[in-house]
Design a protein that fits this description.
heterodimer; A: about 110 residues; alpha+beta; Alpha-Beta Plaits; flat; B: about 425 residues; about 70% helix
């Protein structure tokens, strides 16, 4: 098994229009999805990210008080998983409940040490 | 002030009923190596309830409030310990507690009603692990499952808080080292393990029922807790065994007579002199229902027989109406299952009532192993009573005096002195 990083971007706009019940359901979906991964010993870890950010640009010369990319491109969280191949990992990402809110998931293999 | 009293009472009651369940769920989350962590969370939730309710008034659903608070505090503990080695998150379900995506939902899932009940029962079986001494079992049960403070446990067992702390420490160490699994046992083991749990419950009950505490409140508290524990076994289809129903019936019959056993001054009143109108009829009826439920399967236990005997006493309108024949039959069966000197002595007392002192003396003399019995006050009290009825005053007084020396209980001493004086 190799290690992969899911960078999850966007989807917040649509998600935020949810009713509390729908949000609750979404949390349950995440719980179930991640539980499946954990049971298969594929889950390494992962966290949602806070919206606030500072970004250093121009070779550290300049600091801006926001993430580099916002809106649809805002990174909302990441996940570390184990999979057999890039294709396998992408297949896993396809099941991510946040796809429902049109997020994008970048799947990258972590270079082996 | 009245409001504050009300809050104290509700919280006290709630704590007795719910803290054990909360502790059980939290130990499942934090692991048996972190029992104190679980107890601290529950304690914190209680303190917060006390502070908040006194200030804002009682919430609509105090129980839900308490659970929510405990849950939130547990989330805080997880967040604080995410990177520490204290909690083992390697189990897949626990791994989900370490991600912000799943922490709250996973935490919520631990607290569904059925899960809570099962965890509580699992904890009960864990506390009554056969390798933990019975003394330590019931100490730990009172502290962790019944929400007693160390001081209250000490008071219940008439011992010092230090002794209790040591017992608790040893039990926790045992849990920690052996990673006892807190689960309802498999079907193969369930009867045997339930038997150990019932022994602990009955011991707890007797601590309240037979103990010579002047403090009625402690006694009733212990009795109430023992019955609550037994009842929770009856709420699960895997653990509601006939034996459990039998013990529940037995405790109902006994506690129905609780108030008539002791005078206001704390003196014992004999069964023959008890005011039967003061017996709790509802509790007797409840006991009867449990006893009927106990009558399935083919396992006749001591609880079945003891309950049947207690029921016969409850069913007699007057002492003179007691069905000694039936009771003697139960004692015969009881002796077959448990060759116990106390059962033997009690059977002699039944013979005394049923067939008279001569017969009783003959049976008592067949007893082997009297050297051990010689140190037992009931043996001498029985002989005292038999000789008294045989009008052999000298021997009667001799045995009563010996019995007085052998019991520590003031009530029993007084009772025996009254016997000698011919007051009863």
């Amino acid at each position: 098994m190799r290690d992969f990083l899911f960078i999850i971007r966007g989807g917040q706009d649509r998600y935020n229009q949810n009713s509390p019940e729908e949000m609750q359901q979404h949390m349950q979906d995440w719980q179930q999805w991640m539980d499946t991964l954990a049971q298969k010993d594929m889950l390494v870890g992962g966290q949602p990210l806070m919206n606030e950010a500072k970004t250093l640009i121009d070779g550290g010369q300049k600091i801006i008080d926001r993430p580099l990319a916002e809106g649809k491109e805002l990174i909302g969280g990441y996940l570390l998983i184990k999979a057999n191949s890039l294709e396998h990992a992408a297949g896993v990402a396809k099941e991510c409940p946040s796809n429902e809110y049109h997020c994008s998931i970048e799947v990258r293999e972590i270079s082996p040490m | 002030m009245e409001n504050n009293n009300n809050i104290d009472q509700t919280l006290n009651h709630l704590f007795r009923e719910e803290s054990g369940k909360m502790v059980s769920v939290l130990i499942k989350i934090f692991g048996t190596e972190n029992i104190e962590m679980a107890e601290d969370v529950v304690q914190d939730a209680l303190v917060k309830a006390l502070e908040t309710w006194k200030y804002n008034g009682m919430p609509d659903n105090p129980r839900a409030w308490l659970y929510r608070t405990a849950k939130n505090k547990a989330i805080d503990v997880i967040r604080r310990n995410k990177h520490s080695k204290l909690i083992d998150f390697s189990d897949p379900q626990k791994q989900l507690l370490t991600s912000g995506y799943t922490l709250e939902t996973t935490m919520d899932n631990y607290w569904n009603e059925d899960g809570i009940k099962d965890d509580f029962l699992g904890m009960m079986y864990g506390c009554c692990h056969p390798e933990i001494s019975q003394e330590n079992q019931i100490t730990f049960i009172l502290k962790s499952l019944c929400g007693f403070s160390t001081k209250e446990v000490a008071k219940s067992f008439l011992t010092s808080p230090d002794t209790i702390s040591k017992r608790l420490y040893r039990t926790k160490e045992y849990f920690r080292k052996n990673r006892i699994s807190l689960q309802i046992p498999t079907n193969k083991q369930i009867e045997e393990r339930t038997h150990t749990v019932l022994s602990a419950i009955y011991l707890l009950f007797n601590e309240g029922y037979n103990s010579t505490h002047a403090d009625q409140l402690i006694r009733k508290d212990l009795i109430g807790q023992a019955m609550l524990l037994c009842k929770s076994l009856l709420s699960n289809k895997r653990t509601k065994l006939p034996e459990v129903y039998a013990l529940m019936a037995l405790m109902c019959f006994h506690s129905a007579r609780l108030d008539s056993r002791i005078t206001r001054e704390g003196e014992l009143i004999l069964l023959s002199k008890q005011d039967r109108t003061s017996w709790d009829k509802v509790l007797i009826q409840t006991g009867e229902k449990y006893l009927n439920h106990a009558a399935f399967g083919n396992n006749l236990t001591t609880y079945h027989l003891e309950a049947a005997i207690a029921f016969q006493h409850c069913a007699a309108q007057q002492y003179e109406d007691t069905n000694w024949k039936e009771i003697l039959m139960y004692y015969d069966l009881l002796l077959e299952i448990a060759d116990d000197p106390i059962v033997f002595l009690n059977r002699c007392l039944v013979i005394l009532e049923y067939k008279g002192p001569k017969e009783a003396l003959i049976v008592l003399k067949t007893m082997k192993n009297t050297s051990m019995l010689d140190k037992y006050y009931v043996y001498h009290a029985t002989l005292g009573e038999i000789y008294k009825r045989l009008l052999n005053t000298n021997l009667s007084i001799k045995h009563y005096e010996r019995a007085i020396k052998l019991t520590q209980s003031k009530q029993e001493q007084q009772f025996l002195k009254d016997k000698i004086a011919g007051k009863c």
